[in-house]
Automatic annotation (TrEMBL):
Binds 1 zinc ion per subunit. It is found in: Cytoplasm. The keyword Cell membrane does not apply. The gene is cysS. This is Cysteine--tRNA ligase. Zn(2+) binds at residues 29, 228, 253, 257.
Length: 482
Protein backbone atom coordinates (compact mmCIF):
# COMPACT_ATOMS: atom_id res chain seq x y z
CA UNK A 1 0.00 0.00 0.00
CA UNK A 2 1.56 3.25 -1.16
CA UNK A 3 1.38 5.98 1.47
CA UNK A 4 2.51 9.59 1.04
CA UNK A 5 2.40 12.65 3.24
CA UNK A 6 -0.29 15.01 1.97
CA UNK A 7 0.78 18.59 2.67
CA UNK A 8 -2.84 19.70 2.52
CA UNK A 9 -4.17 17.38 5.23
CA UNK A 10 -0.77 17.30 6.96
CA UNK A 11 -1.18 13.54 7.33
CA UNK A 12 0.23 10.35 5.89
CA UNK A 13 -2.41 8.98 3.50
CA UNK A 14 -2.90 5.99 1.26
CA UNK A 15 -2.48 7.05 -2.36
CA UNK A 16 -5.72 6.46 -4.27
CA UNK A 17 -6.18 8.26 -7.63
CA UNK A 18 -9.35 10.29 -8.19
CA UNK A 19 -10.39 8.30 -11.26
CA UNK A 20 -10.52 4.54 -11.69
CA UNK A 21 -8.96 4.34 -15.14
CA UNK A 22 -5.45 3.38 -13.98
CA UNK A 23 -4.09 6.78 -14.90
CA UNK A 24 -2.57 9.31 -12.51
CA UNK A 25 -2.64 13.03 -13.39
CA UNK A 26 0.55 14.58 -12.03
CA UNK A 27 1.82 18.15 -12.24
CA UNK A 28 5.11 19.55 -10.99
CA UNK A 29 6.21 23.16 -10.69
CA UNK A 30 9.30 23.52 -12.85
CA UNK A 31 11.96 26.23 -12.96
CA UNK A 32 11.83 29.91 -13.75
CA UNK A 33 14.28 29.90 -16.65
CA UNK A 34 16.26 33.05 -15.89
CA UNK A 35 19.37 31.28 -14.54
CA UNK A 36 20.73 27.83 -13.76
CA UNK A 37 18.68 25.86 -11.22
CA UNK A 38 20.45 25.33 -7.91
CA UNK A 39 21.08 21.92 -6.41
CA UNK A 40 18.22 22.83 -4.05
CA UNK A 41 15.90 23.13 -7.05
CA UNK A 42 17.16 19.86 -8.47
CA UNK A 43 16.31 18.09 -5.24
CA UNK A 44 12.64 18.89 -5.88
CA UNK A 45 12.79 17.77 -9.51
CA UNK A 46 14.39 14.48 -8.43
CA UNK A 47 11.49 14.07 -5.95
CA UNK A 48 9.05 14.36 -8.87
CA UNK A 49 11.03 11.77 -10.77
CA UNK A 50 11.17 9.34 -7.86
CA UNK A 51 7.42 9.52 -7.30
CA UNK A 52 6.83 9.03 -11.02
CA UNK A 53 9.02 5.92 -10.97
CA UNK A 54 7.29 4.51 -7.89
CA UNK A 55 3.89 5.00 -9.52
CA UNK A 56 5.16 3.20 -12.62
CA UNK A 57 6.35 0.11 -10.74
CA UNK A 58 2.95 0.11 -9.03
CA UNK A 59 1.41 -0.28 -12.47
CA UNK A 60 -0.10 3.19 -12.92
CA UNK A 61 -0.04 5.05 -16.21
CA UNK A 62 1.16 8.53 -15.31
CA UNK A 63 0.21 11.61 -17.30
CA UNK A 64 2.90 14.01 -16.14
CA UNK A 65 3.24 17.71 -17.01
CA UNK A 66 5.86 20.17 -15.76
CA UNK A 67 5.75 23.90 -16.38
CA UNK A 68 8.58 26.19 -17.39
CA UNK A 69 8.04 29.72 -16.08
CA UNK A 70 9.42 32.04 -18.73
CA UNK A 71 7.46 35.20 -17.84
CA UNK A 72 5.71 36.85 -14.90
CA UNK A 73 7.77 35.66 -11.94
CA UNK A 74 8.76 38.87 -10.16
CA UNK A 75 11.71 39.41 -7.83
CA UNK A 76 9.37 40.54 -5.02
CA UNK A 77 8.70 36.85 -4.40
CA UNK A 78 11.98 36.79 -2.46
CA UNK A 79 10.42 39.24 0.00
CA UNK A 80 7.07 37.46 0.23
CA UNK A 81 5.20 39.52 -2.37
CA UNK A 82 5.28 38.00 -5.83
CA UNK A 83 3.36 40.96 -7.30
CA UNK A 84 6.21 43.47 -6.88
CA UNK A 85 9.71 43.93 -8.23
CA UNK A 86 11.19 43.20 -11.63
CA UNK A 87 10.35 40.32 -13.91
CA UNK A 88 13.18 37.82 -13.44
CA UNK A 89 13.54 37.23 -17.18
CA UNK A 90 13.67 40.95 -17.99
CA UNK A 91 16.18 41.56 -15.18
CA UNK A 92 18.45 38.76 -16.40
CA UNK A 93 18.17 40.06 -19.96
CA UNK A 94 19.34 43.52 -18.91
CA UNK A 95 22.24 42.04 -16.93
CA UNK A 96 23.41 39.74 -19.74
CA UNK A 97 22.62 42.24 -22.51
CA UNK A 98 20.27 39.84 -24.27
CA UNK A 99 16.53 39.75 -24.87
CA UNK A 100 14.23 38.04 -22.40
CA UNK A 101 13.42 35.54 -25.14
CA UNK A 102 17.13 34.71 -25.51
CA UNK A 103 17.43 34.24 -21.74
CA UNK A 104 14.43 31.90 -21.65
CA UNK A 105 15.77 29.79 -24.53
CA UNK A 106 19.32 29.55 -23.18
CA UNK A 107 18.39 28.55 -19.64
CA UNK A 108 15.46 26.46 -20.83
CA UNK A 109 17.75 24.47 -23.12
CA UNK A 110 20.27 24.09 -20.32
CA UNK A 111 17.52 22.78 -18.02
CA UNK A 112 16.57 20.14 -20.58
CA UNK A 113 20.19 19.07 -20.95
CA UNK A 114 20.69 18.87 -17.18
CA UNK A 115 17.39 17.00 -16.84
CA UNK A 116 18.95 14.23 -18.90
CA UNK A 117 22.24 14.29 -17.01
CA UNK A 118 20.36 13.58 -13.79
CA UNK A 119 18.51 10.73 -15.53
CA UNK A 120 15.09 12.30 -14.94
CA UNK A 121 12.23 10.84 -16.95
CA UNK A 122 10.81 13.56 -19.17
CA UNK A 123 7.15 14.47 -18.63
CA UNK A 124 4.70 14.25 -21.48
CA UNK A 125 5.08 17.99 -21.81
CA UNK A 126 7.26 20.83 -20.59
CA UNK A 127 4.60 23.52 -20.69
CA UNK A 128 5.89 27.08 -21.23
CA UNK A 129 3.95 30.00 -19.83
CA UNK A 130 4.58 32.11 -22.95
CA UNK A 131 3.02 29.40 -25.13
CA UNK A 132 -0.22 29.63 -23.14
CA UNK A 133 -1.04 33.33 -22.89
CA UNK A 134 -4.50 32.75 -24.41
CA UNK A 135 -5.32 30.05 -21.85
CA UNK A 136 -4.21 32.33 -19.01
CA UNK A 137 -6.29 35.25 -20.29
CA UNK A 138 -9.29 32.94 -20.69
CA UNK A 139 -8.93 31.72 -17.11
CA UNK A 140 -8.66 35.28 -15.75
CA UNK A 141 -11.84 36.13 -17.64
CA UNK A 142 -13.60 33.14 -16.06
CA UNK A 143 -12.46 34.27 -12.61
CA UNK A 144 -13.65 37.79 -13.39
CA UNK A 145 -17.02 36.50 -14.58
CA UNK A 146 -17.38 34.47 -11.37
CA UNK A 147 -16.98 37.70 -9.41
CA UNK A 148 -13.52 37.11 -7.93
CA UNK A 149 -11.39 39.64 -9.85
CA UNK A 150 -11.06 43.43 -9.97
CA UNK A 151 -8.87 45.99 -11.68
CA UNK A 152 -6.48 48.52 -10.10
CA UNK A 153 -3.67 50.66 -11.49
CA UNK A 154 -1.05 47.94 -11.83
CA UNK A 155 -3.18 44.94 -12.77
CA UNK A 156 -6.11 42.56 -12.36
CA UNK A 157 -6.24 41.03 -8.89
CA UNK A 158 -7.91 38.03 -7.29
CA UNK A 159 -10.40 39.04 -4.57
CA UNK A 160 -9.61 36.81 -1.59
CA UNK A 161 -12.27 38.30 0.73
CA UNK A 162 -15.00 37.78 -1.87
CA UNK A 163 -13.76 34.21 -2.33
CA UNK A 164 -14.10 33.60 1.40
CA UNK A 165 -17.58 35.15 1.47
CA UNK A 166 -18.71 32.31 -0.80
CA UNK A 167 -17.79 29.78 1.86
CA UNK A 168 -14.27 29.01 0.63
CA UNK A 169 -11.18 28.81 2.81
CA UNK A 170 -8.05 30.59 1.63
CA UNK A 171 -4.53 29.52 2.63
CA UNK A 172 -5.17 26.09 4.15
CA UNK A 173 -2.06 24.69 2.49
CA UNK A 174 0.22 27.53 3.55
CA UNK A 175 3.22 26.93 5.77
CA UNK A 176 2.83 30.43 7.16
CA UNK A 177 1.19 30.47 10.58
CA UNK A 178 -1.64 32.50 9.14
CA UNK A 179 -2.22 34.26 5.84
CA UNK A 180 -3.68 37.58 6.91
CA UNK A 181 -3.71 41.17 5.65
CA UNK A 182 -0.29 42.77 5.86
CA UNK A 183 1.26 39.69 7.46
CA UNK A 184 4.06 39.25 4.97
CA UNK A 185 3.66 41.67 2.05
CA UNK A 186 4.35 45.20 1.04
CA UNK A 187 1.20 47.28 1.47
CA UNK A 188 -0.59 48.24 -1.74
CA UNK A 189 -3.27 50.80 -0.81
CA UNK A 190 -5.31 50.02 -3.94
CA UNK A 191 -5.82 46.40 -3.05
CA UNK A 192 -9.12 45.55 -1.41
CA UNK A 193 -7.26 43.05 0.80
CA UNK A 194 -3.49 42.76 1.13
CA UNK A 195 -3.78 39.00 0.54
CA UNK A 196 -5.10 39.64 -2.99
CA UNK A 197 -2.72 38.56 -5.74
CA UNK A 198 -2.13 39.55 -9.35
CA UNK A 199 -3.75 37.59 -12.16
CA UNK A 200 -2.61 39.99 -14.92
CA UNK A 201 -0.03 42.75 -14.58
CA UNK A 202 0.28 46.10 -16.33
CA UNK A 203 3.51 48.08 -16.50
CA UNK A 204 4.21 51.82 -16.20
CA UNK A 205 3.37 54.01 -19.19
CA UNK A 206 6.31 54.41 -21.54
CA UNK A 207 8.05 51.26 -20.33
CA UNK A 208 8.91 48.80 -23.07
CA UNK A 209 9.31 45.10 -22.31
CA UNK A 210 10.51 42.21 -24.47
CA UNK A 211 7.52 40.17 -23.35
CA UNK A 212 4.12 41.86 -23.49
CA UNK A 213 0.70 40.90 -24.78
CA UNK A 214 -2.59 42.58 -25.47
CA UNK A 215 -5.53 41.55 -23.32
CA UNK A 216 -9.12 42.65 -22.60
CA UNK A 217 -7.66 44.87 -19.85
CA UNK A 218 -4.74 46.35 -21.80
CA UNK A 219 -1.11 45.52 -22.59
CA UNK A 220 0.65 43.50 -19.95
CA UNK A 221 1.75 40.04 -18.91
CA UNK A 222 0.33 37.23 -16.74
CA UNK A 223 0.85 37.04 -13.00
CA UNK A 224 3.09 34.21 -11.86
CA UNK A 225 0.41 32.03 -10.22
CA UNK A 226 -2.12 31.88 -13.05
CA UNK A 227 0.06 29.86 -15.44
CA UNK A 228 0.00 26.65 -13.37
CA UNK A 229 -3.78 26.62 -13.07
CA UNK A 230 -4.33 27.40 -16.75
CA UNK A 231 -1.86 24.86 -18.08
CA UNK A 232 -2.67 22.02 -15.69
CA UNK A 233 -6.38 22.41 -16.46
CA UNK A 234 -5.71 22.36 -20.18
CA UNK A 235 -3.64 19.20 -20.18
CA UNK A 236 -4.73 17.28 -17.09
CA UNK A 237 -8.27 18.44 -16.38
CA UNK A 238 -9.84 20.34 -13.51
CA UNK A 239 -8.67 17.90 -10.83
CA UNK A 240 -5.13 16.65 -10.34
CA UNK A 241 -4.17 13.53 -8.45
CA UNK A 242 -0.87 14.95 -7.29
CA UNK A 243 0.94 18.28 -7.44
CA UNK A 244 4.63 18.46 -6.50
CA UNK A 245 6.88 21.40 -5.66
CA UNK A 246 9.39 22.82 -3.22
CA UNK A 247 8.24 23.74 0.28
CA UNK A 248 8.81 27.44 -0.48
CA UNK A 249 5.77 27.27 -2.78
CA UNK A 250 3.48 26.32 0.13
CA UNK A 251 3.44 29.90 1.43
CA UNK A 252 1.56 31.68 -1.36
CA UNK A 253 2.04 30.19 -4.83
CA UNK A 254 0.20 26.93 -4.20
CA UNK A 255 -2.56 28.44 -2.01
CA UNK A 256 -3.14 30.94 -4.81
CA UNK A 257 -3.30 28.14 -7.37
CA UNK A 258 -5.99 26.46 -5.28
CA UNK A 259 -8.06 29.63 -4.87
CA UNK A 260 -8.02 30.73 -8.50
CA UNK A 261 -8.69 27.19 -9.76
CA UNK A 262 -11.51 26.28 -7.38
CA UNK A 263 -13.13 29.69 -7.87
CA UNK A 264 -14.18 28.60 -11.37
CA UNK A 265 -14.71 24.85 -10.99
CA UNK A 266 -17.57 24.73 -8.52
CA UNK A 267 -15.37 24.03 -5.48
CA UNK A 268 -14.03 20.78 -6.90
CA UNK A 269 -10.81 20.00 -5.02
CA UNK A 270 -8.08 21.18 -7.39
CA UNK A 271 -5.55 18.62 -6.13
CA UNK A 272 -6.01 15.46 -4.07
CA UNK A 273 -2.40 15.10 -2.87
CA UNK A 274 0.15 17.88 -2.44
CA UNK A 275 3.79 16.82 -2.07
CA UNK A 276 6.54 19.24 -1.08
CA UNK A 277 10.29 18.72 -0.91
CA UNK A 278 12.19 20.30 1.98
CA UNK A 279 14.91 22.92 1.69
CA UNK A 280 18.54 22.09 1.02
CA UNK A 281 21.01 23.71 3.42
CA UNK A 282 24.64 24.37 2.58
CA UNK A 283 27.23 23.83 5.30
CA UNK A 284 24.39 23.94 7.82
CA UNK A 285 23.08 27.33 6.72
CA UNK A 286 20.95 29.03 4.11
CA UNK A 287 21.72 28.72 0.42
CA UNK A 288 21.79 32.01 -1.48
CA UNK A 289 23.36 33.65 -4.47
CA UNK A 290 24.44 36.58 -2.31
CA UNK A 291 26.27 34.07 -0.10
CA UNK A 292 28.09 32.54 -3.05
CA UNK A 293 26.83 29.04 -2.23
CA UNK A 294 23.89 28.63 -4.60
CA UNK A 295 25.63 25.73 -6.29
CA UNK A 296 24.40 24.34 -9.60
CA UNK A 297 24.73 21.01 -11.37
CA UNK A 298 27.49 22.63 -13.41
CA UNK A 299 29.44 23.25 -10.20
CA UNK A 300 29.05 19.59 -9.24
CA UNK A 301 30.37 18.41 -12.60
CA UNK A 302 33.22 20.95 -12.66
CA UNK A 303 34.36 19.61 -9.29
CA UNK A 304 34.69 16.19 -10.90
CA UNK A 305 31.56 14.54 -9.49
CA UNK A 306 29.03 12.52 -11.44
CA UNK A 307 25.44 13.81 -11.62
CA UNK A 308 24.47 10.33 -10.45
CA UNK A 309 26.49 10.88 -7.27
CA UNK A 310 24.41 14.01 -6.61
CA UNK A 311 21.25 12.01 -7.24
CA UNK A 312 22.53 9.43 -4.74
CA UNK A 313 23.09 12.29 -2.27
CA UNK A 314 19.42 13.25 -2.53
CA UNK A 315 18.36 9.64 -1.88
CA UNK A 316 20.31 9.56 1.36
CA UNK A 317 17.85 11.88 3.14
CA UNK A 318 14.05 11.81 3.29
CA UNK A 319 12.51 14.34 0.93
CA UNK A 320 10.49 16.00 3.73
CA UNK A 321 13.55 16.55 5.90
CA UNK A 322 15.97 19.43 5.48
CA UNK A 323 19.14 18.11 3.94
CA UNK A 324 22.62 19.53 4.41
CA UNK A 325 25.04 19.76 1.50
CA UNK A 326 28.77 20.20 1.86
CA UNK A 327 31.68 19.44 -0.44
CA UNK A 328 33.03 17.04 2.18
CA UNK A 329 29.67 15.31 2.18
CA UNK A 330 29.67 15.25 -1.61
CA UNK A 331 33.04 13.51 -1.59
CA UNK A 332 31.82 10.89 0.87
CA UNK A 333 28.59 10.29 -1.02
CA UNK A 334 30.44 10.06 -4.32
CA UNK A 335 32.66 7.34 -2.89
CA UNK A 336 29.63 5.50 -1.52
CA UNK A 337 27.96 5.65 -4.92
CA UNK A 338 31.08 4.35 -6.64
CA UNK A 339 31.32 1.45 -4.18
CA UNK A 340 27.68 0.53 -4.72
CA UNK A 341 28.07 0.61 -8.48
CA UNK A 342 31.32 -1.33 -8.37
CA UNK A 343 29.79 -4.06 -6.20
CA UNK A 344 26.89 -4.32 -8.60
CA UNK A 345 28.98 -4.41 -11.78
CA UNK A 346 31.33 -6.94 -10.23
CA UNK A 347 28.50 -9.50 -10.44
CA UNK A 348 29.86 -11.40 -13.43
CA UNK A 349 26.53 -12.40 -14.92
CA UNK A 350 24.06 -10.94 -17.35
CA UNK A 351 21.10 -9.36 -15.59
CA UNK A 352 17.36 -9.57 -16.05
CA UNK A 353 16.34 -5.93 -16.11
CA UNK A 354 13.85 -6.57 -18.88
CA UNK A 355 11.94 -8.92 -16.56
CA UNK A 356 9.62 -7.03 -14.24
CA UNK A 357 9.49 -8.25 -10.63
CA UNK A 358 6.95 -5.74 -9.31
CA UNK A 359 3.18 -5.54 -8.95
CA UNK A 360 0.63 -7.79 -10.58
CA UNK A 361 2.65 -8.26 -13.80
CA UNK A 362 5.66 -10.17 -12.46
CA UNK A 363 7.31 -11.64 -15.56
CA UNK A 364 9.67 -14.14 -13.97
CA UNK A 365 9.58 -16.78 -11.24
CA UNK A 366 11.49 -15.50 -8.22
CA UNK A 367 13.18 -17.48 -5.49
CA UNK A 368 11.81 -17.12 -1.97
CA UNK A 369 14.86 -15.06 -1.03
CA UNK A 370 14.28 -12.69 -3.95
CA UNK A 371 10.63 -12.27 -2.98
CA UNK A 372 11.68 -11.39 0.57
CA UNK A 373 14.07 -8.64 -0.55
CA UNK A 374 11.70 -7.36 -3.23
CA UNK A 375 8.98 -6.99 -0.62
CA UNK A 376 11.40 -5.24 1.77
CA UNK A 377 12.29 -2.78 -1.00
CA UNK A 378 8.66 -2.14 -1.93
CA UNK A 379 7.75 -1.63 1.73
CA UNK A 380 10.44 1.06 1.99
CA UNK A 381 9.45 3.02 -1.12
CA UNK A 382 5.74 2.74 -0.27
CA UNK A 383 6.47 4.30 3.11
CA UNK A 384 6.36 7.88 1.85
CA UNK A 385 9.33 7.28 -0.48
CA UNK A 386 11.80 6.17 2.18
CA UNK A 387 14.71 5.96 -0.25
CA UNK A 388 17.45 5.70 2.36
CA UNK A 389 15.77 2.53 3.65
CA UNK A 390 15.44 1.24 0.08
CA UNK A 391 19.16 1.86 -0.46
CA UNK A 392 19.89 -0.05 2.74
CA UNK A 393 17.95 -3.04 1.36
CA UNK A 394 20.02 -2.82 -1.82
CA UNK A 395 23.30 -2.91 0.07
CA UNK A 396 22.13 -5.94 2.06
CA UNK A 397 21.14 -7.73 -1.17
CA UNK A 398 24.62 -7.28 -2.64
CA UNK A 399 26.23 -8.79 0.47
CA UNK A 400 23.71 -11.58 1.05
CA UNK A 401 25.43 -14.98 0.85
CA UNK A 402 22.22 -16.91 0.17
CA UNK A 403 21.50 -15.10 -3.09
CA UNK A 404 23.43 -16.09 -6.19
CA UNK A 405 24.94 -13.46 -8.48
CA UNK A 406 22.14 -13.68 -11.01
CA UNK A 407 19.47 -13.11 -8.34
CA UNK A 408 21.39 -10.18 -6.89
CA UNK A 409 21.76 -8.58 -10.29
CA UNK A 410 18.11 -9.07 -11.19
CA UNK A 411 16.94 -7.55 -7.91
CA UNK A 412 19.22 -4.52 -8.01
CA UNK A 413 18.53 -3.82 -11.68
CA UNK A 414 14.84 -3.67 -10.85
CA UNK A 415 15.45 -1.55 -7.75
CA UNK A 416 17.31 0.89 -9.98
CA UNK A 417 14.13 1.43 -11.97
CA UNK A 418 13.16 3.55 -8.96
CA UNK A 419 16.56 4.90 -7.95
CA UNK A 420 17.48 5.94 -11.50
CA UNK A 421 21.19 5.71 -10.65
CA UNK A 422 22.31 4.02 -13.89
CA UNK A 423 23.92 1.20 -11.95
CA UNK A 424 24.02 -1.04 -15.03
CA UNK A 425 25.97 1.48 -17.09
CA UNK A 426 29.74 1.32 -16.82
CA UNK A 427 31.40 4.70 -16.66
CA UNK A 428 33.27 5.66 -19.79
CA UNK A 429 37.03 5.40 -19.57
CA UNK A 430 38.33 8.97 -19.09
CA UNK A 431 39.80 10.51 -22.23
CA UNK A 432 42.91 11.66 -20.37
CA UNK A 433 44.22 8.14 -19.65
CA UNK A 434 47.70 8.00 -21.26
CA UNK A 435 47.99 5.99 -24.46
CA UNK A 436 50.73 3.85 -22.91
CA UNK A 437 48.43 2.86 -20.05
CA UNK A 438 45.53 2.08 -22.37
CA UNK A 439 47.80 -0.18 -24.46
CA UNK A 440 48.66 -2.10 -21.28
CA UNK A 441 44.97 -2.33 -20.34
CA UNK A 442 44.03 -3.68 -23.78
CA UNK A 443 46.91 -6.17 -23.74
CA UNK A 444 45.78 -7.38 -20.31
CA UNK A 445 42.24 -7.89 -21.62
CA UNK A 446 43.59 -10.11 -24.40
CA UNK A 447 45.52 -12.12 -21.81
CA UNK A 448 42.39 -12.57 -19.71
CA UNK A 449 40.44 -13.82 -22.71
CA UNK A 450 43.08 -16.53 -23.27
CA UNK A 451 43.18 -17.30 -19.52
CA UNK A 452 46.75 -16.12 -19.04
CA UNK A 453 45.94 -15.24 -15.44
CA UNK A 454 49.43 -14.85 -13.99
CA UNK A 455 50.55 -12.67 -16.91
CA UNK A 456 47.43 -10.49 -16.65
CA UNK A 457 47.95 -10.10 -12.89
CA UNK A 458 51.51 -8.99 -13.47
CA UNK A 459 50.36 -6.42 -16.01
CA UNK A 460 47.76 -5.13 -13.57
CA UNK A 461 50.53 -4.44 -11.06
CA UNK A 462 52.50 -2.53 -13.71
CA UNK A 463 49.42 -0.41 -14.45
CA UNK A 464 48.92 0.29 -10.74
CA UNK A 465 52.58 1.26 -10.41
CA UNK A 466 51.92 3.98 -12.97
CA UNK A 467 49.12 5.37 -10.78
CA UNK A 468 46.06 3.82 -12.41
CA UNK A 469 43.55 1.23 -11.25
CA UNK A 470 41.75 -1.34 -13.40
CA UNK A 471 38.38 -2.73 -12.32
CA UNK A 472 37.09 -5.87 -14.02
CA UNK A 473 33.43 -6.50 -14.84
CA UNK A 474 31.66 -9.25 -16.73
CA UNK A 475 31.38 -7.06 -19.82
CA UNK A 476 34.68 -5.19 -19.75
CA UNK A 477 36.85 -2.97 -17.61
CA UNK A 478 37.08 0.56 -16.27
CA UNK A 479 40.26 2.54 -15.65
CA UNK A 480 40.74 5.38 -13.23
CA UNK A 481 43.58 7.44 -11.84
CA UNK A 482 44.30 6.77 -8.17
Amino acid sequence: MLKIFNSFSKKLEEFVPIRHDGKVRMYACGPTVYSYPTIGNWRTYVLSDLFLRVLQIKGYRVDFVMNLTDVGHLTGDNLGNADTGEDRLEKAAAKEKKTAWDIAKFYGDDFMDSFGKLNLIKPRLFSKATDHIKEQIDLVQRIEKAGFAYKITDGIYFDVAEYEKKGNVYGELSNLEEIKPGARVEINSEKRDQRDFALWKFFPAGEKRDMEWDSPWGMGFPGWHIECSAMSMKYLGEQLDVHIGGEDLKSTHHPNEIAQSESVTGKKPFVRYWMHGAFLLVDGGRMGKSLGNAYTLHDIIEKGYSPMALRYYYLSAHYRKKMNFSWEGMEGVSNSYKRLKKEFLALRVEGGQDKNIFGSKVEVELSGREVFFRDEFVSAVEDDLNMSAALAVTRVVLKDEKLNSFEKRRLVENFDKVFGLKLSERDEIPADIPEEVMEMVNKREEMRKTKQWSESDALRKEIEAKGYKVSDFFDGVTVEKV
